[in-house]
């Protein structure tokens, strides 16, 4: 069948049903990067002291990465991260703060990227976050996180400043029991296969 021919809809399986009804979608949101301002958020702007720098080079208003971090910071029990490369300090700092608050954090990443310049994986290990990598000639190229077994964050978005500020990227946040379950199963499979 060529590219221009269509496959009749009857050739595809019907969508899975949950208890005889379509599975509940729940909350859905999407963030499209890059950051419009081209700036990371100012760490002092939203503190009680505020930012007192005359010509601050950081964004003082709402940001896309700020929205992303709100979702990440909603974790209260578990955070399973399966991301190809992690170099963005703002995201890594939030992950380590969640770990320090008692959230059970686990990280799976690519072995080549874990050792690349700017990688935050060693910081995770040093603060006690368990990390596993693929140890293969191919790449562990996923970019997803599961929060509290209720929320999935998934898309093209690597957790890097380049992804935040420069690349055309997306990340979808969705509360859908089936998708959360499927991605959690994928995480557990990789966690059992990979090594520290």
Order of helices and strands: EEEHEHEHHEEEHEH
- The strand count comes to 9
The CATH topology corresponds to Endonuclease, Chain A
Q: Mean pLDDT across all residues, rounded?
A: 90
Just give the CATH class. Alpha Beta
Strand content: 15-25%
Low-confidence stretches: 1-21
Specify Rg, calculated over alpha carbons.
19 Å
What is the annotated CATH architecture? 2-Layer Sandwich
What would you call the shape?
Answer: globular
The largest sheet, given as strand count, sense and whether it forms a barrel, is:
7 strands, mixed
Structural class label: alpha+beta
How would you describe this protein?
With 196 residues, the chain is of the alpha+beta class. It has a single domain (24-38, 60-193), classed as Endonuclease Chain A (Endonuclease, Chain A, 2-Layer Sandwich). The protein has 6 helices and 9 strands, in the order E-E-E-H-E-H-E-H-H-E-E-E-H-E-H. It has helices at 64-72, 89-100, 111-114, 121-126, 161-165, 177-193, and strands at residues 17-18, 21-22, 28-33, 78-83, 104-109, 131-133, 143-147, 151-155, 169-174. The strands form 2 sheets. Strands 3-9-8-7-4-5-6 form a 7-stranded mixed beta sheet, sandwiched between helices. Strands 1-2 form a two-stranded antiparallel ribbon. Strand 1 and strand 2 (21-22) form a beta hairpin. Mean pLDDT is 90; it is low at 1-21.
How would you describe this structure in keywords?
Endonuclease, Chain A; disordered N terminus; 196 residues; 6 helices; alpha+beta
């Amino acid at each position: 069948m060529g590219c221009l021919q269509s496959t009749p809809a009857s050739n595809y399986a019907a969508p899975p049903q949950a208890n005889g009804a379509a599975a509940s979608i729940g909350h859905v949101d999407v963030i499209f990067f890059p950051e419009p301002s081209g700036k990371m958020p100012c760490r002092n702007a939203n503190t009680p002291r505020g930012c007192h720098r005359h010509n601050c080079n950081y964004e003082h208003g709402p940001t896309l990465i700020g929205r992303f971090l709100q979702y990440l910071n909603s974790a209260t029990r578990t955070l399973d991260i399966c991301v190809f490369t992690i170099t963005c300090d703002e995201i890594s700092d939030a992950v380590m703060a969640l770990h320090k608050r008692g959230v059970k954090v686990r990280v799976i990443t690519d072995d080549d990227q874990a050792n690349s310049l700017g990688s935050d994986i060693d910081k995770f290990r040093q603060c006690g976050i368990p990390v596993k990598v693929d140890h293969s000639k191919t790449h562990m190229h996923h970019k997803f996180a599961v929060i509290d077994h209720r929320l999935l964050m998934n898309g093209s978005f690597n957790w890097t400043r380049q992804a935040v500020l420069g690349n055309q990227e997306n990340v979808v946040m969705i509360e859908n029991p089936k998708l959360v379950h499927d991605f959690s199963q994928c995480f557990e499979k990789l966690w059992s296969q990979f090594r520290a």
